[in-house]
Amino acid sequence: MQISFKGKRVVVAGGSRGIGRSIALGFAGAGASVSICARGQAGLDATAGDIRALGAEVHAVPCDLADKEAIAVYVAAAAASLGGIDILVNNASGFGGGDTEDGWRKGLDIDVMATVRASNAAIPHIERSSGGAILNISSISGLGASARSASYAAVKAAVINYTLSQGLMLAPKKIRVNAIAPGSIEFPGGLWETNKTSNPQLYNAVFKSIPWGRMGKPEEVANAALFLCSDQASWITGQTLTVDGGQSLG
């Protein structure tokens, strides 16, 4: 099945590394113009260069997605640079861990409120599009209880529920909203690659819990993202697709 996004304008909030980077590259490779933001300039520059190498137009600027005003400025700048917005991907995460004030604050500010704020800023632009879509990146942590990362699990569950509500609210505007709940994804510089050496006991326990026998790859999440945002998924909205090699089945 060939998926083309030629002529589409895609915004990936949190698009410089890992899953966000792979999603941005996937859209660019399928013909879209892409805007990415993140806090780190070096990662943005590297990913923007990779997007340009695919022959795609790219807009890349730093943005702290915990900052309400900065989000509004970024989305407006992305729309101006690309000539509009057809698709928004909310990928950023504060990676709040345990049941702590700091973990909850990071999760609520970035995983939840950045998703709300970026969506609200982008919706007027997407509404003018033909076949617009929003994709929220959650986690399998949001599907159940978590003794190790209570705040992260709770905010990712909120993203899943918000996706349901967005799907209902935006259907009359013909804007589809879906989510992906990835399992444990390993990539250079990411959490699980770091844990492989810093916390091998945790890494090995999680590794052994995955029926497929390996960690996931960012591009496997990106492939699902492209499908959910494409015309091939034109009657799918308000859904969360689990991409985890069976990890959540255990």
From TrEMBL:
Q: State the name under which the record lists this protein.
A: SDR family oxidoreductase
As given in the record, the signal peptide range reads: none
Q: From what organism does this protein derive?
A: Bradyrhizobium sediminis
Which keywords belong to this entry?
A: Oxidoreductase
Give the record's family classification: Belongs to the short-chain dehydrogenases/reductases (SDR) family.
Enumerate the InterPro entries for this protein.
Answer: NAD(P)-bd_dom_sf, SDR_fam
PANTHER family xrefs: OXIDOREDUCTASE, SHORT-CHAIN DEHYDROGENASE/REDUCTASE FAMILY (AFU_ORTHOLOGUE AFUA_5G02870), SHORT-CHAIN DEHYDROGENASE_REDUCTASE FAMILY PROTEIN
GO molecular function term, any single one:
oxidoreductase activity
One Pfam annotation reads adh_short_C2
